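Morning F.,

Quick status update on the modeling queue. The single chain you submitted on Monday has been processed. Sequence for confirmation:
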Amino acid sequence: MVRPIRVAVVGGGPAGIYAADILTREHPEASVDVIERLPAPYGLVRYGVAPDHPRIKEIIKALRRVLDNDRIRFFGNVDFGTDLKLDDLKRFYDAVIFSTGAMADRALDIPGAELEGNYGAADFVSWYAGHPDVPRDWPLTATSVAVLGAGNVGLDVARMLAKPADEQLTTEIAENVYRGLKANQATEVHVFARRGPAHIKFSPMELRELSHSPSVDVVVEEEGFQIDDAGQEEIGRHKATRLVVDTLLKYLEAEPTGAPHKIVIHMMQNPVELLGEDGRVVAIRTERTEYDGSGNVHGTGEFVDTPVQAVYRAIGYLSSPLADVPFDESAGVIPNDGGRVLSEPADQGGEQIPGVYVTGWIKRGPVGLIGHTKSDAKETVDHLLTDLEAGRVSAPELGDPAAFVEHLTARGVEFTTEEGWGLLEAHEIALGGAEGRERIKVVPRDEMIRISRA
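Structure tokens below.
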């Protein structure tokens, strides 16, 4: 006979929701509570993606179907570490899966990084995606901007900086973000990549979207368009790489239209210094690179200064430590063995902590797309079920589902639910309908909570 189990998933983004879905599919008596510190679910799908990405709607529909499962409950506006501790969760659940992702920006370790005008891309993304916990305004006075990083986040940032605000009025963009972008003075956005076209991490669709605005010319600098033998192999092996190279080549060969905004892609240039005056960024210094025969690059000693008044570093996300949970500062993850949380990293002799698991970016680092997240969650859930069958997962002290609700209520936590998310979603859709848009995102946390708990 299969024993009923209750599992808490801390983190309501795709990683956590996929883990809940897989667990309820593979264990007929499993029930899952998804616990999220924000009032709304979906994590970076809601708060880490540019509003003009319509295909994200399909991902949200799939995640919503998971949360509609009767054996999955959603608790929003519950902060792990403040409202709840690990010992609290162990009283109510057989196991806990952490899926808190990565939201912080990696630092830029070059001279001049302390200058005003050096911004983290993750912070900017949170602003334009309407995250409730970031400032409502963003300084957009720079006419020339640098974006560091050759990935999709860098492309999103470049597009949002170059695209006129009025072109966003078909999206769910929040009113404060529209006003901020309307005042944006940027006319040139320079994207810098250390390597050439065959090693850039753009996805083909993201790259093509750069030219969808009639107000933006996309320019690829010819000098950095270099492909070495390793790059040729990548093109031959991977269709996506071939499509990226083809798209960059089309931009390289295209005649400028004279559009009022321009995105310039510089390849084979490595940022080495931010130059400043009066404490503010006035230029970025890059060193031209060349291939070393292995697909990697090294500096040539030739430097280029590009005048810019702001720099956005899209060089990677970082996970944050969690209260009472081990954290590997060097790797930026919770130490684990295939999703089983360890007391220390495995190479330091860490041992498994019974009943505690991890999935998503806080498990493996901030790499990979949605498909990786699903397979990652599957691995973690498989190990949890193996441990359950082997008797390594203990039943909780308070297994009644109502006990957790009573605990939050007694603590005075103004939690939101899946039903409350439905109310908020309906409210956002109604706001959008009044302006002929699909929805308009509500930003203030207190307003989100008020609507969700109505």
